[in-house]
Amino acid sequence: YVGYPPDDRDLRCETRDLESVQCSWEKGRDTNLALKSPTVYRLNGRTCDHEGTCSHETEPGEKTWTLTAQNQLGKVELQDTADLLERVHMYAPEEVTVSHVN
Fold it and tell me: Entry's InterPro entries (predicted)?
């Protein structure tokens, strides 16, 4: 039985509404420890519910986010620093209508 420490990489955080931040990262190789020692992900100390993505409330401005991925065999920390005003991906418009003007 062989297992591996986490080797996740490329953390990137952005916002869609300037009220919350969504951070995503590339998962590394399978640790082979899912049942015995699952990898625990924390973003700025708060547990993430999903592997590969994590969301938290935030405020606009320059921020630094630290993701920690840890299992029994090791730990990796990833950081991303950005001004959220420069990383806005707005939601697509909904219920758009077109009016004909003469």
Answer: FN3_sf, Ig-like_fold
